[in-house]
Design a protein that fits this description.
Layout: E1 6-13, E2 19-26, E3 32-35, E4 41-47, E5 52-57, E6 60-63
Antiparallel strand pairs: 1-2, 1-6, 2-4, 3-4, 4-5
Length: 72
């Protein structure tokens, strides 16, 4: 993904009793997809609403739109 790409991400947040939440995110140089010591997948992203980095763990979904300008 390119730096600056904006997307929506949805996942079950432990902080909210595993409630499924949606957030607006942006890919930065510090974003990554990685695994913890137990092998669980983690998606670190920049949360545009909360203005900080967040981790989505285990299962998540995200959507991104690419808008091409100047194309007729």
């Amino acid at each position: 993904m390119k730096v600056g790409t904006k997307f929506r991400i949805g996942y079950r947040a432990k902080k909210y009793n595993n409630e499924f939440i949606w957030r607006q995110g942006m890919w930065t140089e510090d974003c990554k997809i990685w695994s913890d010591k137990k092998g669980n997948p983690i998606f670190t992203y920049y949360d545009l609403e909360r203005e900080g980095y967040r981790n989505a763990t285990n299962d998540w979904v995200f959507t991104s739109s690419i808008v091409k300008q100047g194309v007729n």
